Amino acid sequence: QSYIYIYHVMSDVIVPWDRVLARQLRTNVCGSKHIFQRAWSTHVTRKVSSTAGSNESNANSTGDSPQHDIAIVGGGMVGIALAASLASKPLTKHLNVAIIDNNPLLGRKNIIEKGHLPDPRVSTVTPATISFLKDIGAWKYIEEQRHAYFDKMQVWDYTGLGYTRYNAKDVDQDILGCVVENKVLQSSQLSCVQESDLQKTIYPARLNSMDMLPSSSLTGLGEVPSTADLFMRGRLAKLELSDGNNVYAKLVVGADGSKSRVRELAGIKTTGWNYSQNAIICTVEHTVENFTAWQRFLPNGPIALLPVGDKFSNIVWTMDPTEASDRRSMSEDDFIKAVNDALDYGYGPHPETTSSGGSSLSWLTGDVNISAKERFETPPKVVKLSSERMMFPLSLRHAKDYVSNRVALVGDSAHTVHPLAGQGVNLGFADASALSRAIAEGIALGTDIGEANLLKRYEAERKPANIAMMAVLDGIQKMYAVNFGPLNAFRAAAFHGAHYISPLKKRIISYASGEQSLPLFS
User: Fold this and answer.
1) Which residue ranges does the record annotate as region Disordered (predicted)?
2) Residues 6 or more apart from 244 whose CB is under 8 A from it?
């Protein structure tokens, strides 16, 4: 799902992460060596057989269950991003990777139909994510499908006390982001994996159980230990799948979403809470093409209007569960009227566009003239509903650990955030990039890629960044969840500062774009 990301004002964030460990890598001289072999196609298997195992580089010659370097559980956007990132690196492009997901579309070459109406499930990818997708070779496939760059954002609230406009030119960039359908993101990355040298096997099944034993010496096992021996000595994890397959891997990656089975089986706990909010998403149509990302904060939650190209936009409307059920079930005409009201004069007036010198908040900035590009604008009217209305509950969850021995979590398996900023998938792609780098470093040093000491390098990089983003998003959600006079004035001051204080605006845009880390006021 995709939402506009806007920071109006930010104070220093104290990040209470549990621990960040920076441990020196140690070489596992007893680890088995990789046997590299070129594989030109993706294998899809439904049960273990000699045919399914014959093209696996580390499949045991005695005919036991297939052995992989990495098993990725979850073939969604982040799981496939990890596979594509591994496929793009010289040190990891020949690895033997299993992808475990019961989505039948993963076995198809092209899952996008030309001329389709936009799907309501979209993501706003930041410039940093676009750079990652270009590096792994996926962006060229995305550009062949529907996508919508935007270079302007406008954010305001229902009180009419203030607004903020952001322009890519404020930070000398061409764009602020791009809205892409989730299935286009997934298909494009899958194309990279399918056309790579990566040895990959897709298991269309669910993970039932996962076993691993403490590590012990390989002494006395011979030059080429069997898969069973490696498992018994703690060098492999064993995965039992719903289709009867047993799969062994040096590293298991949980990319299986917020209700991660990998996380559950690894015994990794989470902290967090449910928000008393649901989100409705859908595709709508205008009479003109939309090139701006819009967001208005309403009493029960924000509504966002995101361009998706060809006169279509995506609606993301957050509200309390009862209102969400009513909005989802009302007639199309009534829903369109409600959307247009929410983006116009419904709930309160438009903010006034005046010089800051004529504002009660001019003490923040002095007398500043407003250019035409900074004036408040009204979003384009919605004229048609072009998809079903989908609804889902919102929550915040964070895994206490991202890794354990032979297990790593990425994306929603490790963290879920409030969607008001559309940052969830961007955090997941950053996870995939960081984990693939850690794996490449381990291979370069001859380290067992499933060792916790190596995986902690990934956790140390990503956990602080994710917690900082979660803290900011949760703070914004809470700040706009209360209708209280003094707080409304504070929010107006935040809008005002973000709109008129150029250094602050630039830092906000850079952080939202994934190009700068906290603290904002360094």
Assistant:
1) 47-66
2) 47, 48
- How far apart are alpha carbons 245 and 158 in whole angstroms? 55
Q: What is the mean pLDDT of the chain?
A: 81
**What does the buried/exposed string (b/e) look like for 424-447 if buried means 16 or more CB atoms within 10 Å of the residue's CB?**
bbbbbbbbbbbbbbbbbbbbeeeb
Residue among 262, 265, 267, 264 nearest 252 (CA): 262
Residue with more model confidence, 19 or 74:
74
Rg (CA), the chain: 25
∠ Cα 154 155 159 (to 5°): 135
**What distance separates the 2 farthest-apart alpha carbons in the chain?**
84
Burial (CB count <10 Å: 0-12, 13-18, 19+), residue 292: buried
Position 222: which residue type? G
- Specify the 3-state DSSP secondary structure of 57: coil
Average pLDDT score over residue span 383-409: 96
Q: What's the CA angle centered on 521, arms 515 and 522, to 5 degrees? A: 80
What are residue 238's DSSP bridge partners?
211, 248
What the block records as the tokens of 193 is 């994996």
Tokens of 355: 């010089």
Rounded CA separation 154/163 (Å): 7
Whether the ω angle into residue 351 lies within 30 degrees of 0, i.e. cis, is: no
Lowest-pLDDT range of 280-294, 318-332, 357-371: 357-371
